Amino acid sequence: MSRARAAYDDVVVTCPVTVPYVRYSIRGAHWFLAGALAQLLKTAGLAKDKLDGLCISSFTLAPDSAVGLTQHLGLTLRWLDHIPMGGACGVVALRRAARAVQAGDADAVACIAGDTNHTNSFRLNLATFSQFARDAVYPYGSGGANASFAFLTAYYMRTYGVTREDFGKICVAQRANALKFPLALMKKPLTLAEYLDARTIADPLRLYDCVMPCAGADAFLVLRRSEAERRGLPYARILATIERHNAFPDDAIQYRGGWALDRDELYAQAGVGPEDIDVLSTYDDYPVITLMQIEDLGFCNKGEGADFVRRETLTADGSFPLNTSGGQLSVGQAGAAGGFLGLVEVIRQVTGQPLGAKVADARLGLASGFGMINYDRGLCSGAAILAAGNQR
Amino acid sequence: MSEHLLSQLIGALAGGQLRIVDLTQTLSPDFPQIVLPPEMGQAWPFRIEEASRYDARGPGWYWNNFSCSEHTGTHFDAPIHWISGRHLPDNSTDTIPVQNFVAPACVLDCSRESAADADFLLTVGFLKNWERRHGRIPPGSWVLMRTDWSKRTDPVAYQNIDETGQHTPGPDSEAVQFLVDERQVLGFGSEAIGTDAGQAFHLKPPYPCHYFMHGSGRLGLQCLTNLDLLPPTGAVIIAAPLKIKEGSGSPLRVLALVPDVSLAAKRGGEKRPSRMSRKRRPASAKKKRR
Amino acid sequence: MTRPLVRPPRKNPVLRTRLPNLPPGMRSRVALGLTAAAARGRFELQVCRDCGTVQYPPREACRVCLSHRLDWRAQDGAGELVSETLLHHSNELFYRERMPWRLGLIKLDCGPLIVAHLHGDCAAAPTRVRVSLHLDRAGQAALVALPKKDTPNMADDRQLREMTCDPKFRKILITDAKTPLGQSLVEAVVAAGADLVWAGHAEPWKKPPDFDRLASIPQVSLVPLDLTNSRAVKDLAGEIGGRVDILINTADYHRNFGIAARDGVETARAEMDMNYFGLLRLAQEFAPAIRARGADGQSSAVAWVNLLSVFALSNFPPHGTYSASKAAALSLAQCLRAELSPAGVRVINVFPGPIDDEWSQTLPPPKIAPARLAADIVAALRSGAEDVFPGDIAEDWLARWRDNPKALERELAAQQI
Question: Are C339 and C194 within one domain?
Fold first, then answer.
């Protein structure tokens, strides 16, 4: 823990791309992943046969994994990975790809996450999600993670005095951000009153606390800095990353995530503090998790999240830009792409190429990942701090 | 000569001078079955299971499989059925000479006595009294004890069992011996569930009708019905058991040929002749009713 | 506080009957260890033999020391309710039809964290609760958090009643009401609140003492029923089959012979015809309507009870052919369980040891009294257990059988137990 981890040297991340989200699609996951790959290669001016590394995340690619894609899409690679970590897959894919490029095991690694969404996808994905969920959660009726996050939301409200208005402020701000983001599925404004009066899903969670599953894909390319410059690509430098699985297993309820264990190392490796971060993307499957990440990533103390939210403005032009494309809550959750959405938005902001609202002078961004509600809590957590590269 | 007799028979049946009376109870699962103490091997009640009924098991046909005891429903007892007849020659349903299956019958009306006393025993005295009115019982005749017991359609009443056992009418030991030794009858027939009385276990010997009848190579018929439609004498019984190898008896169709002047035709509310025979009734019968 | 159940109004006959949807029923094999415990009315969790850690959810190796030596052990269920929610939305059809539904997150004193159904009488979190294990309508184990102490009308809680087969306000067919057990059972289910009890009886010319007394109970209706008579079974099913909520098959033909003690197959056939084929006839005629009514309102069709015998597990040679007929019935009852499970109807198999009746007259005590057995059957209906071993002999033989079935076989052959 005290041994310093290797810096990322000259490894950079470029070419944030998104295959537009749709609510339902008759296409397979391969269609969306291929679309993201094609955009990546075009944006980078990279010939397909020059791509030698690929990292994939998808829930609906089955029965294929990344291996099947190599033949499906005509790729010959010397590095391949498949990251089944849901909302943490973006940060983790970045970590894997960066070390591969750094070590010379690959020169250009495409990191892609995407899923289709058929009318039965949600049900089918749940059925094969995890053994513990199948044995110990779904039989109780939640049919997904709603009950687990209702438990946590109620606990947070009771223990830390967080109110529904506090959560509502997060959702309303993200919706405001999304209205400027051309690819967001939610296109209508959301008021606090509408948020508070929405129909109950699992008390205290209501409709606007829950994401909308959809189809889509997000991706980025990891290169050596010299290669990115040679191609004239805007890039972000990787200052630090953390990753943790099954943190604090003995906590009776997941009131804190792995970031609480690893954030000091994150900031130490980056050589910055939370106050230096210009834009934050949290993994926002439910607003309570966003609040938890704000606390656990050191932006305030545990239990002070409500005060923080009341104090700050969270829109892209606010005092604390958060989920500036709208987050999953307003853009949509395209399966595993939900784990890339926040990271891709941070890459766009710090490289000066946002699709929607722009965060002024975004030099440092932090993208946080969280996911895989195996039973009663999300097992995976991670975070990455990116810095503006050649655009500043 | 014999052909003439036979065609006369057929003609008489067709013309209505002779009628056929069915003395058989319908074989159904609801018909009571003789009950032995639980320690004994039991006689199966009639049971029937569909094999198919114009359905997936057989689209074009309907048929059943059934099971029962040899002594279920209206049935025939062969001499081999009882220990006293076990060693007699030709004593099973497959070996009894077939001549025995067509025979005259004497019908003894004990219905009044049986109505008054479920344990009524037919005695030698009763037999002699009957013979005074109807003549001597001929050798080779069936002796049928009419008790109207078959009119007890409620199975509980038919079985008539209480804590002391079954209470149904039957012959006493002397009456049976008389019929065997003095009258050389063919066999004994009853409307109740046994040829012996319900309490015959307590007679000497127990179950004297079975004991002496079968012990002398004679036959039994049980669960008969419609004996009230037969004349005291003159009916001819057709009672042919199934030809079961070493069979002790079998359910069977018991038919009686009776002259048309049978009592049934004169009674209201009784089992009426079929439509077909009504059409063929000769003019002479109508004259008689006037 | 739970509102006591009231008698439901008569069903509107022109309305379509709601069909059964079930809670999710998939479980891993190791999780079926919970189902095995719930089937016997027990709450067990895996405990590591090497470090003592209690595990949940069920798993293949200890989460602390990785040992494979995990044993299922009884738990008392004491714990703390950490948080709760009231579901108003579910993708699961079963729960959609029963919204809202209360769930809780509980930390058990023995260690694990569990998600459980939350009884309506549990106070808001944080509070002490008592967790128990039941079979849900899918026939799989489900945890239920109950208030620490019993509350009035607790069994009438809407969510808990979905786990049980409570006789209250239900209509019950007891196939043989003439035996001492049958008579006791009629009285027991009437006392438990059954609306109507059809008391089946065969061989009407055989009247046991006290039988007429049953007919005078207002809820009781005597119906002729002989399970060896296919037509009679079909006719009764035609008459009442669409109204039976709980069917209790007590018809039993019991003789005391092995193989050598009796010539011919007649007696053994009679045992099979009643105990095995009787069940088959009954199931063919009554199961279809029961299956269709598995979700038919408050007084839905909910259980099929088979009076088997502990002799079904391992042959008791002095009653050898009887044992075989009960073993055949057990196997068939498992088939029936599979066929009724899509309807959420529970098949409850009862395995008493010798009953204190005439057919066990020469067996030494302990023997189970008919009234006691009847009470145990009603208790099983109320708790929702499905494999019931009432009485000391039944518990003893079951323990021996689970421990070493070959040893039990020898012990029974030598009549050492």
Answer: yes
Contact C95 A203 (CB under 8 A): no
Which residue is it, tokens 């057709």?
Answer: B238
Q: What is the ipTM of this complex?
A: 0.90
Assess C90–B contact: CB distance below 8 Å, yes or no.
Answer: no
| pLDDT digit string, tens, across residues B252-263 | 999 999 998 644
List, in order of start, the domains of chain A with CATH numbers: 11-120+215-230 (3.40.47.10), 132-213+236-388 (3.40.47.10)
SS3 (DSSP) at B52? strand
**pLDDT tens track for B62-102:** 999 999 999 999 999 999 999 999 999 999 999 999 999 99
pLDDT band for A3, please (50, 70, 90 cuts): low
Domains and CATH numbers, chain B: 20-34+48-259 (3.50.30.50)
A178, A273, A384, A385, B114 from A238: Cα distances, Å: 26, 15, 7, 6, 113
Do the two chains C and B touch, given a threshold of 8 Å on CB pairs and at least 3 pairs? yes
Catalytic residue among B81, B87, B210, B214: B81
Tens of pLDDT, residue by residue over A114-127, are 999 999 998 888 88
Inform me whether the C-beta atom of residue C90 falls under 8 Å from chain A C-beta atoms.
Answer: yes
- The whole-angstrom separation of Cα A83 and Cα A70 is 15
Number of B/C CB contacts below 8 angstroms equals 35
Do C357 and C232 share a domain, yes or no? yes
Place of tokens 């079951």: C398
Peptide bond into A182 cis (omega under 30): no
pLDDT tens digits, B139-150: 999 999 999 999
> Which CA distances in Å does C130 have to A184, C43, C77?
46, 11, 5
Question: Per the structure, how many domains does chain C have?
Answer: 2
Same domain, C209 and C65: no
Q: Provide the pLDDT for residue C51.
A: 97
Q: Are C148 and C179 part of one and the same domain? A: no
pLDDT tens across A232-269, in order? 999 999 999 999 999 999 999 999 999 999 999 999 99
Instruction: Kindly report the nearest CA distance between residue B47 and chain C, in angstroms.
Output: 6
Q: Which residue of C has its CA nearest to B158?
A: C205
Residues C127, C190, single domain; the answer is no
Rounded to whole angstroms, the Cα distance separating A340 from A186 reads: 18
In a domain, C9, yes or no: no
Of B30, B38, B156, the CB nearest to C205: B156
One-character DSSP codes across A178-199: HTT-TT-S--S---HHHHHHSP
* Domain contains C214: yes
- Does residue C4 lie within any of the structural domains? no
Size of interface A-C (CB pairs under 8 A): 122
Task: Please tell me the predicted confidence (pLDDT) of residue C159.
Answer: 96
Does A135 contact C23 at a Cβ distance shorter than 8 Å? no
Contact (CB<8Å) B41/C205: no
| Nearest Cα residue in chain C from B65 | C230
Residues of C in contact with B160 (CB under 8 A): 205
Answer yes or no: do C97 and C178 share one domain: no
Cβ–Cβ below 8 Å for C228 and B32 = no
Contact C228 B49 (CB under 8 A): no
Does C321 lie in the same domain as C190? yes
C279 and C136 inside one domain = no
Asked whether residue C6 is assigned to any structural domain, the reply reads no
A212: left (phi over 0), alpha (psi -120 to 50) or beta: beta
Could you list the residue range(s) of the whole structural domain that residue C356 is in?
171-413
Chain C residues lying within 8 Å of B161, measured CB to CB: 205-206
Contact assignment for C270 to B42 by CB distance below 8 Å: yes
Q: Respond yes or no: is residue B81 known to be catalytic.
A: yes
Q: Give the CATH number for residue C220.
A: 3.40.50.720
Q: Where are the alpha helices (DSSP H) in C293-369?
A: 320-340
Closest residue in A to C99 (Cα–Cα) = A141
